[in-house]
Design goal:
Layout lengths: L1 E3 L4 E4 L5 E10 L11 E7 L2 E8 L6 E8 L3 E5 L6 E9 L15 H30 L8 H5 L9 H4 L3 H7 L15
Antiparallel strand pairs: 1-8, 2-7, 3-6, 3-8, 4-5, 4-7
Length: 188
């Protein structure tokens, strides 16, 4: 953590390959509570000023934040008779690790193989789609079953009463063995 004293600012420049993560900002003890009712916390980055939060000696003496910086920034505040503490840590920047993504990993030979594979994939869906269209256009006649012929009228319509057959009766008669509708108290 760092302390930013009244009337000063703190410039921070992360090392190459590192990130600065600020997670907590706290107000020091103040003598005059009225002057510390609203303390804006300022951040300057790329010549732009931002207020990243505010503290109050009466009801908000600390805040949790999640700020990550990869380039130079400047911290300051407007408190006249107290300091502000910025707490956080340094972390390794996973993106700046050049060893993981070297130019040797991506050669021209690999690019040629990917182009050939992509061309083969582009052709495959065309064949699949044309076969699918052919199968959709075929009409298949299915032979009538005995059950369908028994329940149909002379004009080929199915009798509505035969559909309802005995389905509803089975549901009404279904009971579980050993279970009655009355509830019993199983505690003795």
């Amino acid at each position: 953590g760092v302390e930013v004293t009244p009337g000063t600012s703190l410039k921070v420049k992360p090392e190459i390959g590192t990130l600065i993560h600020i997670s907590h900002i706290a107000l020091s003890e103040v003598k005059d509570l009225k002057k510390a009712q609203y303390v804006p916390l300022r951040l300057k980055i790329d010549d732009k000023d931002y207020i990243i939060g505010s503290l109050s000696a009466e009801d908000r003496t600390q805040i949790m934040v999640d700020l990550v910086f990869e380039k130079e920034f400047e911290l300051s505040h407007d408190l006249k008779d107290g300091s502000i503490y910025f707490i956080g840590y340094k972390a390794e920047d996973p993106i700046s690790d050049d060893d993981e993504f070297s130019s040797e990993d991506f050669s021209d030979e690999d690019d040629d193989e990917h182009v050939e594979a992509n061309n083969e994939l582009d052709e495959a869906p065309k064949d699949i789609n044309s076969n699918a269209l052919k199968s959709e256009s075929k009409k298949v006649d299915l032979p009538a079953t005995d059950k369908a012929s028994d329940s149909s009228d002379s004009d080929g319509k199915i009798d509505d009463e035969s559909e309802d057959d005995d389905d509803d009766d089975d549901d009404d008669e279904m009971k579980l063995d050993g279970v009655s509708g009355d509830s019993e108290d199983l505690t003795d």
